[in-house]
Amino acid sequence: MREDFENFNDEDEEWLSELEISDTDLENELSDWHAAQARQLAETSYGQDEIPHRGRPGMLRAQPRPPSSRPAPSRQASSRQARGRPAPPPRQFIEEDPDDDFTTPIRTGGWTASGHPGEDRTQAIIDRGRRSASRVRRPRSRKIMFGVAAAVAVITLASVLILRSGPGWPSSVATVQSQVTTACQNPNVASEPGQVNFACGKTTSQILWVFALMTSGNNPSFTDAKTGRQGLEPISPTQGGEIAWSLNMHHPYNPLDPVDSLEVAARALNNIIGGATLTGTNGKPTVQPGLEGNPANCAKYTGSSAVVSHAGFPSLCAQPVSTATGQAALVADAYKQWVVGATDAQAYDVGVLFANADNPGNAQVQAILKSLPNAS
Q1: Quick check: 45 and 94 in contact, CB under 8 A?
Q2: What is the pLDDT of residues 51-81, one digit of tens each?
Q3: Residue 170: CB partners within 8 Å, gap ≥ 6?
Q4: Helix (H, G, I), strand (E, B), or coil: what is residue 60?
Q5: Number of Cα atoms under 13 Å in the Cβ half of residue 359
Q6: pLDDT given for residue 66 in this prediction
Q7: Any residues with CB less than 8 A from the CB of 199 and at least 6 apart, and which?
Q8: Which of 41-45, 160-164, 259-263, 333-337 has the lowest mean pLDDT?
């Protein structure tokens, strides 16, 4: 046991000696390499105050030394090889890649070229400084995200501007328009016998809700204390009752029912415009002319004064009232006959509202609406 321990100590001592010799050889090699580098720098344009940068193209790391005339391996090395212990790997130096980061230490078997871990990296940082950080580029995904956000903001703003509610008709107009649709389903609202139906025409039925807006502020319970006129389209109860008989309406007629009021108004306005044939007090039919039975009015409404008349029928304009100007003039005249004592200015305002039924933002329309005390 003692003999084995002594042999172990001897071998360990020999191994440590070999390490010392290897370290001495490595220091000699590094010293020779530094001397060769210094000579090379002196012969070239790089031979200045500092060692050339390792990151420059063409700079070489230490190359393997050519065989030297060093003494033969010592007795300890021979004895180690004889015992089968592998010799330490030779230190090698390779050519540096120009693209290598100069902060990366030259490693050979886990050691830096200087023989100590980390020394080469530290020395490089001291000699040359750290490489300046390249400007950070924004990821493409972030650019896309910002672009989408900007597009959404623009679309949202445009939608708000487009859909923003502008000046419009009073909210009650929509209700009356629905009631007009119901009232115009009565086939007897056209004038007799001329069958004029301007009040419920596709492009002219707005005359009913415009009149309601002007005369009652779209209030179906409206009552004029001075004249006794009642309803959404104010008319005297007696007159309304007489017209209601010709409409085959339910009885009794209710002037405060908005649909009843609109049906009576539609028939009355068509009679005002197209005329009617009534039974006189003597029991004989009496022809009652309308606005279109006058040649002067026809010239104003249609541009032509020609009038067509048939026996037993009220006279009518030879040309239809189709232009916006002609229709507005006809509506203004009908209003003056519908509302006793209406002024020309009021009749003109009614014509403006009628002509701009699809354009409530018109400046004149908005001015008229602001002047109506009962509009809601």
Answers
A1: no
A2: 444 444 444 444 455 554 455 445 444 444 4
A3: 213, 218, 369, 375, 376
A4: coil
A5: 9
A6: 52
A7: 184, 189, 205, 207, 208, 265, 266, 267, 269, 270, 273
A8: 160-164
